Amino acid sequence: MRNLSLLTDLYEYSMTNGFDAELPNTRATFDVFYRKVPDQGSFVIAAGLQQIVDQLAHFHFDESDLTYFRSLHLWRDAFIAHLANLTLDCHIHAVAEGTPVFPREPLITVEGPIAQAQMLETLILNILNHQSLIATKTRRMVFAAKGRPIMEFGARRAQGPDSAIYGARASVIGGAASTSNVLAAKLFNIPAAGTMAHSWIEAFPDELTAFRKWAALYPDNSALLVDTYDVLTSGVPNAITVFKELRAAGHQPVGIRIDSGDIATLARDARKLLDAAGFPETKITISNALDEAVITSLLDQGAPIDNFDIGEKLITSASAPVLSGVYKLAAIETDGHVIPKIKISDSREKVTIPGKKQVYRLYRKGTRKAFADVIAGSDETIADEIAVVDSNPLSVNRVHHLKNFDAEPILLDTPLVPAQIPNNVHTIYHYAQQRLAELPAATQRLINPDLYHVYMTTTLADLQHALINQL
Asked: Is 4Fe-4S tagged as a keyword (predicted)?
């Protein structure tokens, strides 16, 4: 595993150097949260915790790092010497990977010496923002596909190797059934899948020969790309010829892939040809710059598509390529005295929620039907009836009284021990499906999803208002 301790912004270490000198006995609590859902959705699927824990468990600086720090001539020698023997004394609480999370509620809290907790900001945000973004985008595409499998094959268009590898991991958490990325498949035990490229067809004297050569090599995995020349007059007829030869030899053809053209019309016509030739069980897979909007359109047109291969618009979340998660100071602690902290801005939506916190998911009494989340102080007890206000700073702050519910904390104690964190992406996927099933169906639709309420207790709201007035 690569040591990513230097994957940060310069000012993190400049502040850490200062905190080490000026506030050596101060501990801090930082919250990681986001304000806006990509693609105008309702929620984000949390992903990336395993890699965060892996990195924090092995966080260190080697001699080459320290030599580089000295060459910058920016920081105190005592600080650099301290880094040489650093052992993280930080603790995190986090939502489990696969949990749907909503704006303004912490996904992760980091508690520790302020000089240590500050230096973790960029690394944590880099991992969490990326993997949560891709898991969320994949969830949208899987929702649009209505049960049809999606294969992730965006490695060629990803922004670098790590984006390809961990994007593939996140895509499975979001619901992708397989990946074309062999390294990701090996690392995370993801089914590897794929057909062929047009270059295979073009390399042979004719299309039929190319198909026959492929079928000879892969008689039980013959999925043929049929749009190199002409789907209906060449590709599908030649595929049918080869499929008949495979069947005669005792093999079952897989199907065809269409990568260009009027996909809906071509898929319908190809299905007719395959069915008429006696191959109703063969699958039609499509690719070519797909996203949830295209998938929805194709299925609304009645296109008989069995599988979707999705590349660049999944691995880059092209329509909304940023999850703007932030890392904000919520409290400091000196000599056992906790002081809540707040960021105030002329942009009301950027005002933070102060203090140490817990997030509760509320369910209708005796059910697993979630109807709201509540952000509370970490020392608050959620009673049978509570007074809350909307956590959105743009709301009117009307007080609501909630009762007849079961409350479940979702920020969990997370030891920095990789072996204790679920790391099987298929297990995480199934967990995500369970959590999604708890949410109102209207919050999951792709267009104009219903609002899912995220409240904060009146105690926390009063603290926020008191600090705003004080400052």
From this structure: no
Evaluate whether 10-134+321-470 and 194-309 have a shared fold: no
Structural tokens at position 77? 């020698």
Token pair for 16:
């850490």
Strand (E) positions, 88-197? 91-94, 100-101, 108-113, 150-152, 178-179
Could you give the CA distance from residue 341 to residue 29 in angstroms, rounded to a whole number?
Answer: 9
The DSSP line for 41-61 is: -S-EE---HHHHHHHHHT---
What's the predicted TM-score (pTM) here?
Answer: 0.96
pLDDT band with cut points at 50, 70 and 90 for residue 269: very high
Residues 341 and 27: beta-carbon distance below 8 Å: no
- List the CATH code of the domain at 10-134+321-470: 3.20.140.10
The topology under which CATH files domain 194-309 is TIM Barrel (3.20.20)
255/240 Cα distance (integer angstroms): 9
Angle between helices 121-145 and 425-438 (to 10 degrees): 70
Would you tell me how many other CB atoms lie within 10 Å of the CB of residue 409? 15
Given a cut of 80, whether residue 1 has pLDDT beyond it is: no
